[in-house]
């Protein structure tokens, strides 16, 4: 018999991420590029392996092609194991049922047998759309010490943001006394980070009860957590201090990228060798900065060729910025080309985009209503102007890695 | 291509003794993120050669560390994959020379077992100090068209009197068949085919060549064995027209790296569609430029922090160029640290070199100033 695993991680990666608009047209949110050479899911996968958790189920549903290919056998994260490792868990057809994942809780419920195979004591439930580094091992110690049934990682959020989160209150020992999912207003500013550790037996019994309830939305925040709290289970809040960013909107994704440029914020120490963020590397040559190019306060990576000006920007691999082109306050994703004389300001340019000569994309950050977005594979014609805040959707249906 | 690949990792180590003191020629860093072996290995992999043996002799720790299981080249396979072939030392014979070799032929004799056991019909032999992006399938087609016994890859080079003669020169007839093999001497000038140390032949032919050499006590593959076979056996030169650099001296190493600053060299070597150059994945962060960074005509790897000025330079992974620093015409290898207001010109720093604040170091492009691994200034 195989040794049991103490803790199995279940990573919810199936959401559409519709607030990222054209960015998630053909890729799931966790597969959206971030910070030059990463994808959003790299952070949770790397956190798992850096916390000693080597069994991870990735629950996919929406546009899984790129995500599947990216995660692959898990080798970049050291999750290619003969026992455990990473498994992609799409919805499947069973003898008596065939269902899409109806909610976050339902996605886990449909994969109870995956969890059972490893016979874990604990199940760590994660969402694949946050940027942070965290030692789940410490949280697990906290959970065990409290003899808890459920531990929820929490962070303080500004009062005006409470309506975007699950907000909870706890007593002096950290025991949760109240939980509200996305309240209009609340006295508490302690928000759930969507990171849960459950003792397996409790989780299983609540998931089974939830599945039997036809009125349930099968959601952790809306159903499972309130039901456990109502039944008086031992639920604790695990306070997290550090950088944590939900990148669910275009604005917050742009901000999280820009945070990497701000040394004073030291948002995530990407270079910390104990908390290293792993990613699947592209095979590209070193990046080249030409004579006459200007690169200031920016992040560049392999395969970039810079002949123009790049200021306050984050570039993914294989981006070309031609002579006389100017990129400011922007995020440029893989293999896009900014032709000579083009100006890109306060924008997110998805991958494989061509910005034609002398085109003008977006406006100065101070003047623009919102960040401008150019979807993957879009070609902007020579001299075209795309006003600030506009979103150009991709016409291409299939995605490329 | 149905061939086994064989790489010589130590040959020519003495050309750049400083850099090969503690590593093989194969693991000499090159071009911001590569090691020399990445070029022959990638050429093999891109031509569907997936059974590769790397002959090594000494100093091969860094090589083994670089190659690992071979997964970064897709050479971690059940069948074939990459094997490091260290010298065979018998527990029963107490001879120092046992298993050690000094020439290419002796090295091949040492791995005769590997050659015999391979299942592939052909064999490709390559050295490490031969930097090119070569489609071996083209060489193979040429080999078949000419019904050659051995195809050697060579580059037409206008020889200069000043070049020291270590290079192997081929004279050919109009069809490309080799008529004479010579070592370069100082009176050779004009265009000649210079051997790029890559050759293709049938595996059973290679086997018999090695056995014949052992039987006759031959030492040198070309001088002793092949030169005598030119009449009966068909040796052909495949001319490589793309970029090629070989490394015969520290100045060669310097100029080879610097040639990557030319776009036509990069497009011929590093960005050939469908033939990428693979290397070990290091999981570095992207490179971060501060608001005061000034970089021009330079090639940089990931994981660097650039706060100063960098011109005409090759910057490897994890290099830190502090504020006020001016780095010109230099090659800074992995994890070099340059303190504030330091000035470098024509300097090569090996890995993990630390240069404190306010230093002023300079060499000349023909005699670059070299700092050994781990040096502190």
Q: What's the total count of β strands of chain A?
A: 31
The average pLDDT value of chain A, as a whole number, equals 93
Q: Supply the number of structural domains of chain B.
A: 2
Shape of chain B: globular
The computed structural class of chain B is alpha/beta
Strand content of chain B: 25-35%
**Distance N to C terminus of chain B:** 50 Å
State Rg of chain B: 21 Å
Number of helices in the DSSP assignment of chain A? 8
Structural class, from helix and strand content of chain A? alpha/beta
Task: Briefly summarize what is shown.
The complex is a heterodimer of chains A (401) and B (377). With 401 residues, chain A is of the alpha/beta class.
Q: What do these coordinates show?
A:
Chain A has 401 residues and is an alpha/beta fold. Helices cover 19% and strands 27% of the residues of chain A. A seven-stranded mixed β-sheet of chain A has the order 5-4-1-6-11-8-12, with helices on both faces. Chain A has a six-stranded parallel β-sheet with strand order 14-17-20-23-26-29, with no helix packed on it. Chain A has a six-stranded parallel β-sheet with strand order 15-18-21-24-27-30, with no helix packed on it. In chain A, a hairpin with a 5-residue loop joins strand 9 and strand 10. Chain B has 377 residues and is an alpha/beta fold. Helices cover 20% and strands 29% of the residues of chain B. In chain B, helix 3 crosses helix 6. Chain B is globular, with a radius of gyration of 21 Å. Classes of the chains: A alpha/beta (401), B alpha/beta (377). Chains A and B meet through strand 14 and strand 16 of A and strand 14 and strand 16 of B. Strand 16 of chain A pairs antiparallel with strand 14 of chain B.
What's the SSE blueprint?
The complex is a heterodimer of chains A (401) and B (377).
Chain A: E1 7-12, E2 33-34, E3 38-39, H1 41-50, E4 55-59, H2 64-71, E5 85-89, H3 104-109, H4 112-118, E6 122-127, E7 130-132, H5 136-145, E8 150-156, E9 166-170, E10 176-181, E11 190-199, H6 200-212, H7 220-230, E12 235-239, E13 244-246, H8 250-259, E14 287-289, E15 294-296, E16 298-300, E17 305-306, E18 309-311, E19 314-315, E20 320-321, E21 326-328, E22 331-332, E23 337-338, E24 343-345, E25 347-349, E26 354-355, E27 360-361, E28 372-374, E29 379-380, E30 385-386, E31 391-392
Parallel strand pairs in A: 1-4, 1-6, 4-5, 8-12, 14-17, 15-18, 17-20, 18-21, 19-22, 20-23, 21-24, 22-25, 23-26, 24-27, 25-28, 26-29, 27-30, 28-31
Antiparallel strand pairs in A: 2-3, 6-11, 7-13, 8-11, 9-10
Chain B: E1 3-8, E2 29-30, E3 34-35, H1 38-46, E4 51-55, H2 61-67, E5 81-85, H3 104-110, H4 112-117, E6 122-127, E7 130-131, H5 136-145, E8 150-159, E9 168-172, E10 178-183, E11 190-202, H6 203-216, H7 221-225, E12 235-239, E13 245-246, H8 250-258, H9 263-269, E14 287-289, E15 294-296, E16 298-300, E17 305-306, E18 309-311, E19 314-315, E20 320-321, E21 326-328, E22 331-332, E23 337-338, E24 343-345, E25 347-349, E26 354-355, E27 360-362, E28 369-371
């Amino acid at each position: 018999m195989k040794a049991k695993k103490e803790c199995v991680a279940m990573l919810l990666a199936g959401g559409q991420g519709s607030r990222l608009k054209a960015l998630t047209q053909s890729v799931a949110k966790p597969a959206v590029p971030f910070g030059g050479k990463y994808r959003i899911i790299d952070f949770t996968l790397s956190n798992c392996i850096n916390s000693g958790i080597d069994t991870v189920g990735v629950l996919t549903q929406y546009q899984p092609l790129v995500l599947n290919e990216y995660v692959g056998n898990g080798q970049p994260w050291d999750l290619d194991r003969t026992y455990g490792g990473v498994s992609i868990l799409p919805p499947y057809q069973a003898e008596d049922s065939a269902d899409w994942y109806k909610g976050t809780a339902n996605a886990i419920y449909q994969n109870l047998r995956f969890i059972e195979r490893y016979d874990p004591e604990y199940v760590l439930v994660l969402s694949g759309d946050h940027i942070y580094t965290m030692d789940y091992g410490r949280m697990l110690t906290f959970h065990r010490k409290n003899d808890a049934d459920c531990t929820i990682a929490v962070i303080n959020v500004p009062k005006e943001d409470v309506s975007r989160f699950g907000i909870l209150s706890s007593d002096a020992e950290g025991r949760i006394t109240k939980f509200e999912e996305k309240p209009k207003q609340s006295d508490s500013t302690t928000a759930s980070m969507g990171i849960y550790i459950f003792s397996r037996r409790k989780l299983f019994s609540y998931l089974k009860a939830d599945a039997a309830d036809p009125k349930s939305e099968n959601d952790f925040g809306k159903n499972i957590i309130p039901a456990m709290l109502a039944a008086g289970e031992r639920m604790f809040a695990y306070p997290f201090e550090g950088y944590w960013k939900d990148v669910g909107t275009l604005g917050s994704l742009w901000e999280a990228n820009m945070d990497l440029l701000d040394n004073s914020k030291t948002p995530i120490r990407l270079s910390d060798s104990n908390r290293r963020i792993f990613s699947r590397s592209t095979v590209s040559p070193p990046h080249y900065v030409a004579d006459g190019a200007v690169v200031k306060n920016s992040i560049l990576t392999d395969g970039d060729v810079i002949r123009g000006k790049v200021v306050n920007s984050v570039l993914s691999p294989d981006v070309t910025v031609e002579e006389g082109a100017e990129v400011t306050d922007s995020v440029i994703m893989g293999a896009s080309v900014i032709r000579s004389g083009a100006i890109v300001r306060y924008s997110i340019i998805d991958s494989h985009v061509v910005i034609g000569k002398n085109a003008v994309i977006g406006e100065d950050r101070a003047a623009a209503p919102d960040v401008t977005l150019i979807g993957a594979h879009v070609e902007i014609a020579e001299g075209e102007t795309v006003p600030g805040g506009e979103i150009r959707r991709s016409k291409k249906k299939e995605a490329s890695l | 291509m149905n061939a086994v690949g064989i790489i010589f990792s130590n040959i020519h180590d003495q050309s750049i003794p400083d850099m090969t003191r503690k590593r093989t020629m194969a693991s000499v860093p090159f071009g911001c993120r590569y090691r020399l072996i990445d070029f022959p290995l990638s050429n093999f992999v891109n031509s569907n050669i997936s059974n590769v043996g790397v002959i090594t002799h000494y100093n091969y720790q860094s090589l083994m560390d670089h190659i690992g299981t071979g997964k970064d080249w897709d050479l971690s396979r059940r069948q074939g994959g990459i094997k490091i072939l260290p010298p065979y030392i018998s527990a029963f014979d107490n001879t120092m020379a046992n298993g050690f070799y000094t020439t290419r032929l002796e090295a091949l004799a040492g791995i005769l077992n590997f050659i015999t056991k391979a299942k592939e019909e052909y064999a490709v032999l390559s050295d490490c100090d031969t930097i090119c992006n070569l489609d071996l399938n083209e060489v193979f087609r040429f080999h078949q068209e000419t019904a050659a016994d051995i195809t050697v890859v060579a580059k037409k080079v206008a020889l200069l009197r000043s070049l020291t003669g270590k290079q192997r020169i081929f004279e050919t007839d109009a069809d490309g068949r080799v008529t004479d093999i010579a070592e370069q001497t100082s009176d050779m000038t004009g265009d000649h085919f210079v051997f790029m140390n890559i050759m293709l032949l049938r595996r059973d032919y290679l086997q018999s060549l090695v056995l014949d050499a052992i039987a006759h006590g031959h030492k040198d593959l070309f001088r002793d064995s092949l030169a005598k076979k030119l009449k009966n056996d068909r040796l052909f030169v495949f001319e490589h027209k793309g970029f090629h650099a070989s490394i015969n001296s520290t100045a060669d190493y310097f100029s080879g790296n610097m040639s990557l600053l030319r776009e036509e060299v990069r497009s011929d070597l590093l960005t050939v569609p469908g033939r990428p150059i693979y290397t070990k994945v290091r999981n570095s962060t992207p490179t971060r430029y501060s608001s005061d960074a000034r970089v021009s005509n330079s090639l940089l790897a990931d994981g660097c922090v650039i706060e100063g000025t960098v011109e005409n330079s090759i910057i490897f992974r994890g290099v830190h160029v502090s504020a006020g620093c001016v780095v010109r015409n230099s090659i800074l290898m992995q994890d070099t640290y340059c303190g504030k207001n330091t000035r470098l010109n024509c300097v090569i720093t090996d890995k993990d070199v630390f240069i404190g604040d306010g230093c002023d170091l300079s060499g000349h492009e023909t005699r670059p100033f070299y700092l050994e691994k781990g040096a502190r200034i």
